[in-house]
Write a structure and sequence with these properties.
3 helices; 2 domains; three-stranded mixed beta sheet; four-stranded antiparallel beta sheet; alpha+beta; elongated
């Protein structure tokens, strides 16, 4: 005589995950494959992120500047977007003297918190912490700025009156 399971017992068994036969095998194989793929993806993302964000000193880095050659100034520093970078003659080493209205016309070049500024073909970059907590990029200890009226990459209209294009050797 074949014993039949009551609908209540079947429901309990299914809810508890105790299915038998080919359904359980198929479900387990699919689950195992999905888990393997999920963990492989997580590992790939972690390894890929580490490869692209690590600097030689094992600090996380952010590319903020690069070099650009001009006929007027020679080799200069520009943002990664191509905007000219300037220094302010009244700044001291690792200290900015540009505040209030000055910052509206001369926004500081900022690096994200916790990241070290780097540049393509540039050494001597660092960062200082401004009074508002933002980290301003420096070149050889000089705080760096962009000029608000340089509306397009490559434009150099801020040179003079205490402001200098960052010229490279």
């Amino acid at each position: 005589m074949i014993e039949r399971e009551s609908p209540l017992e079947t429901s309990k068994r299914e809810i508890s995950g105790q299915t038998e036969g080919p359904m359980r095998t198929r479900f387990t194989a699919k689950r195992r494959t999905a888990l393997v793929l999920f963990f492989a993806l997580i590992i790939a993302l972690l390894v890929g992120t580490h490869l692209f964000t690590s600097s030689p000193s094992s600090e996380k880095a952010q590319v903020v500047v690069k070099t650009h050659s001009t006929t007027r100034f020679g080799k200069i520093l520009v943002t990664r977007g191509g905007f000219t970078v300037y220094t302010y003659n009244l700044d001291k080493r690792n200290h900015s003297n540009c505040y209030a209205f000055c910052l509206q016309v001369w926004p500081p070049l900022i690096v994200s918190s916790g990241l070290h500024p780097i540049g393509h073909g540039v050494s001597g970059l660092g960062a200082i912490t401004r009074s508002n907590g933002q980290r301003q990029v420096t070149y050889e200890g000089k705080p760096l700025y962009v000029f608000a009226l340089d509306h397009v990459p490559g434009r150099i209209s801020g040179e003079g009156n205490g402001w200098s294009v960052v010229k490279l050797p």
